[in-house]
Design brief:
The chain has 16 helices and 24 strands. With 554 residues, the chain is of the alpha/beta class.
């Protein structure tokens, strides 16, 4: 989008945001759901919304942390509050993914910047229990149930690669882990059989040697009056499966318990390339069984016939690589080891190119080399130091390129409100992890020349269009005209057919869009951006709106 079109669109979005009534959103979408077109909202649990200030401090975590390295109060209940308010419905969200909520190490680790607590969720101490800072299992169950009532799936962030750091309060896991060598990332082995960083104990995922529950964990369970229950369940699991009592199978059992009990729809798999790919296939097998068991036990709560979903964080995987990730000495097809999709680290760079360059490239790959599989695109993430728009100077363009791009989309919390990614006094990835800017949104603050409510309105319209039309993310892309830029997407799955036409950088006021070969004469369409209804006449539609974007669908 050129600068003139950006500012014209922004001005008129502002007028619309001030005058247009809030649109009612059905909590029971009629459009079938496809993971290839998912609109995934990803937030750091501790940094999104504080629903219960009473759980903000646990386990004596009272030392002053380094900037943005401690718990700030966000929790599961806070996410449910925003769900109840309709925040995710208005944004067209079809799946929620948040950082792990399992019990973290009780102490802090010093990564060179001072006190660091496990607010991010990736320093697990106990895979069988939620951390009270994040909430309770009852609150988790309520969130998942309510999300499903809104037609929103739930993706659990899972960790198998490592435990939390060893500290004075958090003993290491003897026989389960290695603490050296540190990974050098030169080839397959130096990515996998090694510790990612100093004092991040690496689970021996390659081992089939039996191990016992660590003494500290057994003692913990006894104090919590659940040792007999947990060990009996483990005995039953290993008897049913015949797996050796090796570290990875304990963790697989613990993770799939949440699927079986709560109906979790999918996993986002952390540090996926740092574990033997076969481990993910083993996890997928047990997750599929657990999901089927939940559906059988809860027939009235089943959303559809979609199977369990797994997306992997294969760090630096790029869609251009197709199905293979190259370790240097070995190429691995993670798609052939349990994954439906991989997080795509390439869009943040591709987004510097033209719309057509990006859209045609992704459509060709997803309907060619990656046919039947998917990618999860993003422009910002929690640990990527080079996002597309670090200065938040192009928030409208970022939303348009992400949400209209073929493939599934990941909105990182605050993308839609220009939450700052550069925090004074903050080091490293903590800059990406500030608390959600609800205050700025309420005040309609104007960071970098864009009002937050106008930015949100733009992302909402794009997101609702994506939710209503699987063709946006899962369809075949074809450019219709270069100037003005218009395109179509066509999607067919069994008996279901969907088609859309969209235009970007169009003139403000009346505009004519060719829809020939997409919609028959006389078809009534909705422009999802302006809310206007139009009719196909002579293979074209005329849209008179105060915007430079048109999003057409039935």
């Amino acid at each position: 989008m050129n600068r003139i079109s950006i500012f014209s669109t922004l001005l008129l979005v502002t007028l619309s945001a001030c005058t247009a009534p809030r649109q009612a959103v059905s909590t029971q979408p009629q459009t079938p759901f496809f993971w290839e077109n998912a609109n995934v909202y990803f937030m750091m649990t501790d940094r999104f919304n504080n629903g219960n200030p009473k759980n903000d401090v646990n386990f004596g975590r009272t030392l002053a942390p380094a900037t943005l390295r401690g718990f700030m109060g966000g929790d599961i209940k806070g996410i449910t509050q925003k769900l109840d308010e309709g925040y995710f419905d208005q944004l067209g969200v079809t799946a929620i993914w948040f950082t792990p909520v399992l019990e973290q190490i009780h102490d802090f680790a010093d990564e060179g910047s001072g006190v660091n607590y496990g607010f991010h969720g990736y320093w697990i101490k106990d895979w069988t229990r939620l951390d009270p800072n994040f909430g309770t299992e009852k609150e988790l169950a309520e969130l998942i149930q309510k999300a499903h009532q809104h037609g929103i799936r739930f993706v659990m962030d899972v960790v198998i690669n490592h435990t939390g750091p060893a500290t004075a309060q958090d003993p290491a896991w003897p026989e389960w882990v290695r603490t050296e060598p540190q990974c050098t990332f030169k080839d397959y082995e130096t990515n996998i059989q090694c510790a990612l960083v100093k004092n991040l104990p690496d689970i021996k995922t390659e081992s089939n040697a039996p191990v016992e529950i660590p003494a500290f964990l057994a003692e913990k369970w006894k104090k919590e009056h659940r040792y007999k229950k947990e060990t009996a369940e483990l005995d039953a699991f290993f008897q049913r499966t015949g797996y050796p009592r090796a570290p990875r199978f304990y963790i697989i059992k613990w993770l799939t318990d949440f699927v079986r009990q709560y109906g979790i729809d999918g996993y986002r798999c952390d540090t996926a390339k740092h574990i033997e790919e076969t481990v993910w296939a083993e996890l997928r097998k047990e997750a599929d069984l657990a999901f089927a068991d939940w559906k059988k036990a809860n027939p009235a709560k089943v959303l559809d016939n979609n199977g369990f979903y797994m997306v992997g964080e294969v760090y630096q995987y790029k869609i251009s690589a197709g199905r293979q990730y190259d370790f240097g000495d070995k190429k691995v097809d993670f798609y052939n080891n349990g994954f439906d999709g991989l997080i795509n680290f390439e869009l943040k760079d591709d987004a510097q190119n033209s719309y057509e360059n990006v859209f045609s490239k992704y459509s060709t790959l997803l309907n060619g080399t990656l046919q039947g599989k998917g990618v999860l695109n993003y422009v910002t993430s929690h640990d990527d130091s080079a996002p597309f728009d670090r200065k938040r100077s192009k928030p409208l363009e970022a939303g348009t390129k992400l949400l209209l791009c073929p493939g599934a989309a990941q909105i990182y919390y605050g993308d839609e409100t220009s939450r700052s990614l550069t925090i004074p006094g903050t080091q490293g990835d903590a800059n990406l992890r500030s608390f959600m800017n609800w205050d700025e949104l309420a005040a309609n603050a104007e960071p970098n020349g864009y009002k937050t409510q106008d930015i949100l309105a733009h992302w909402q319209k794009l997101g609702r269009f994506r939710r209503a039309h699987p063709a946006v993310g899962a369809g075949v892309h074809t450019m219709l005209s270069n100037k003005p830029y218009t395109f179509k997407r066509i999607f067919q799955s069994g008996a279901f057919h969907d088609a859309v036409v969209a235009g970007i950088d169009l003139p403000v006021g009346e505009k004519t869009i060719g829809v020939q070969d997409v919609f028959p004469e006389g078809t009534k369409l909705l422009d999802y951006y302006s809310g206007r209804q139009v009719e196909v006449q002579g293979g074209k539609v005329k849209v008179n709106s105060a915007f430079g974007i048109v999003l057409l669908g039935k």
